[in-house]
Amino acid sequence: MTVQSIRLFGDPVLRTPADPVVDFDKELRTLVKDLTDSMLEEGGAGLAAPQIGVGLRVFSFDVDDVVGHIINPELSFPDDEEQDGPEGCLSIPGIYIDTKRRQNVVAAGFNEHGDPIQIVGTGLMARCVQHETDHLDGVLFLDRLDAASRKDAMKQIRAADWYDAGKPPTIKESPHGRGLFGLGR
């Protein structure tokens, strides 16, 4: 087991868009294993490569007893249905805020060997796929909150034991805009 440290809110790697994977090699397979081991150890539903300091478009997931990963995901939404519920992040520990997301998502990408794969997600899986893909774009779930919820989240973060007041927090606008229901894409 190769468990990596999780980067916390304030670390610039979390705000930097990740690069597409171009080499499907042993190093990539090691990264996928490290992501999966680290996610399982921390009890998360997903973990993106930037969260362990690697700027590549890869994430792992563990939702409803389905453990997997996807590389270079591209999302599409089969309908306009939305969900609103608590969302948290391993990089922002202990903070859970209701966040709007699409209810259904289709993610097309690749596995660790470069074979095409597709994830069709509803509910929690859809939330996870959208959350982790946001990480690959340098976007945090805080960026998806309305002003009042964001203010509440920032107050909770500043009060958290893990927060480093020496690193001023930043909020980044989603590169996909707020779009339908404020969800982007």
From TrEMBL:
- The catalytic site is made up of 132
Query: What does the record give as the reaction this protein catalyses?
Result: N-terminal N-formyl-L-methionyl-[peptide] + H2O = N-terminal L-methionyl-[peptide] + formate
One Pfam family per UniProt: Pep_deformylase
Upper classification of the source organism reads: Bacteria, Bacillati, Actinomycetota, Actinomycetes, Micromonosporales
Alphabetical UniProt keywords: Hydrolase, Iron, Metal-binding, Protein biosynthesis
Matches recorded under Gene3D superfamilies: Peptide deformylase (3.90.45.10)
Group of enzyme by EC: hydrolase
EC nos: 3.5.1.88
UniProt: Fe cation binding residues: 89, 131, 135
In alphabetical order, the GO MF annotations are: metal ion binding; peptide deformylase activity
Instruction: State the function annotated in the UniProt record.
Output: Removes the formyl group from the N-terminal Met of newly synthesized proteins. Requires at least a dipeptide for an efficient rate of reaction. N-terminal L-methionine is a prerequisite for activity but the enzyme has broad specificity at other positions.
Would you indicate the residue range of the signal peptide? none
| GO terms classed as biological process | translation
Q: Which domain of life is it from?
A: Bacteria
Q: Does the keyword Hydrolase apply?
A: yes
InterPro entries annotated for this entry? Peptide_deformylase (IPR023635), Peptide_deformylase_sf (IPR036821)
Entry's cofactor comment: Binds 1 Fe(2+) ion.
* Protein name (record): Peptide deformylase
Q: Which family does it belong to?
A: Belongs to the polypeptide deformylase family.
**PANTHER family per the record?**
PEPTIDE DEFORMYLASE, PEPTIDE DEFORMYLASE, MITOCHONDRIAL
Cofactor section:
Fe(2+)
> Origin organism of this chain?
Paractinoplanes abujensis
